[in-house]
Specification:
Blueprint: H1 13-29, E1 37-40, H2 46-56, E2 61-64, H3 71-81, E3 85-87, H4 90-96, E4 114-116, E5 124-127, H5 133-147, E6 154-157, H6 164-175, E7 179-182, H7 188-198, E8 202-205, H8 207-217, E9 230-233, H9 240-250, E10 255-260, E11 265-270, H10 271-276, E12 280-284, E13 289-292, E14 298-301, E15 309-310, H11 314-320, E16 321-324, E17 327-330, E18 335-338, E19 344-348, E20 354-356, E21 359-361, H12 363-370, E22 376-386, E23 390-399, H13 403-413, E24 422-425
Helix pairs in contact: 1-2, 8-9
Amino acid sequence: MSYETRQDGAMTAPNLRRLASRVAAGLARAGVRESDRVVVSLPNSIELLAAVWGCLGTGRIPVPLDPRLTPHERGPILDEVSPALVLDSLARFHDLLGDDEAELDVAPRCRPMHFTSGTTGRPKGVWSGLWDADDAAAAVLEERELWGFAETDVNLVVSPLYHSAPLRFALGTVLAGGSVSVLPTFTPEGFCEAVGRVRPTTMFCVPAHLQRLLTHLEQHDSPDLSCFRLVAHAGAPCPEPVRRGAHALFGSDVVWEFYGSTEGQFTACSASDWSAHPGTVGRARPGRVIVVDDEDELWCVVPPWGRFSYWNDPDRTIRAWRETAHGPAFTVGDLGRVDEDGWVYLDSRRTDLIISGGVNVYPAEVEAALVEVPGVTEIAVFGRADDEWGQRVCAAWVGDASEDDLRSAAAERLAPPKRPKQYERVTALPRTATGKVRRTEL
């Protein structure tokens, strides 16, 4: 099924709104009501964006999931959210569409419910609650004022839209009247072709994208990148050579980075601010205050529309929030400091977190999937530095199981980014006096 696009293949806001309105009408025909959950597990595409917008604009709750999740990973999430509908193929998306359209609210009624794991290895949904009209409008305006989204923008999507940041940039663009073009997957060659064809003005990416692009351009001519007014990167620490290479490639007035998580956004930092304050991740975003507790843990005070709970997990929600002199603040367990001028410096990410190509991988989740392999006595998953991906996922195990057994189980139970790339059999795992695995020694 084809949709009306610009000659260069990008989709304008009016056409995408029309498609999202058809999705919303289809959801109504299917009996999906306000506050019902809709799992959206589609390839990176305009259809994915339209499905999410059709939900958000009518008070249904989209749950974007990586389409590569195995049944072992996806099953518990479906049990958790009890979806009224699962869109897990483009065929099902097309079956949902009719010629009728439903009215969409001016602003989304909530945030998508993205799932994030933790030290327990059990993924949990981050839920904003349904917003009233004022909070919905304020949430849209906050992103628009920070990033300058406008009707003249063309957002090039190079990252998976089931992640919160690329989805937020794409949706923010069309809500401002701009256009969107989606790459099914990122390759340097595909990016260069799209730049010449679409002439995008904005892009969100992760450092691994920049690394691959810079390496590619060492052997190939660069396209004309003067069309970009904003290139924002986040999702993983950015090596200084990659950061400086991006500044030189796109322009120091174009490149920004920010620090945040699925749960919420903390800071934003221009290239010039980073150059003046090397190592910073920026200052608190407008409307936010960042404080540090006695254990150097970062807490972020957010406006009402930035608050959240973990779906069906009140205990975890309570641990994530605390009252401060500035209002309710949340943490994701990252450690850092804030200097006297408000510049935030990140010392370490969440406990044990591996960030590979901008994808968060939680060792506990991988370990839980592999410890059941016959012959595995115990297993520890950890990250090692990788020139291309930032970190690669590794595993050390004790027991008689073979590496082939572990690789087979990983292929069956884990999406590709979570599968260990390197395995090592050891006689014992290094532990602290209290029994905690010393991952740094591995």
